Amino acid sequence: MSELLSKRDRMIAATSSRPELQTSSVASTAGASGTKLPKLTIAPHAGDLCRWNDFWEQFDQMIHRNGSLTATDKFNYLRFFLRGDAASAIVGLPTTEAC
Q1: How many domains are contained in the chain?
Q2: pTM for this entry
């Protein structure tokens, strides 16, 4: 649990220093060949450390690195996608730009 809390603290520190995206999915778009791509979604994360990297890679690309989202928006999306122990780890944190 302490390892999860440490990862949470590092993630929050990184998020507060970089503003970015807020959406649970990316709409389908036409590729260079005109092929319609499937809608991308982020699977919720329940705290399994073995699955953290998969979750974070998706969240980072779709939400965290999106420059159109505020830090508050990003944190709200993070709350939306976390379940169980992972959600419990951030339950008391404020949802503000200052976090």
Answers
A1: 1
A2: 0.61
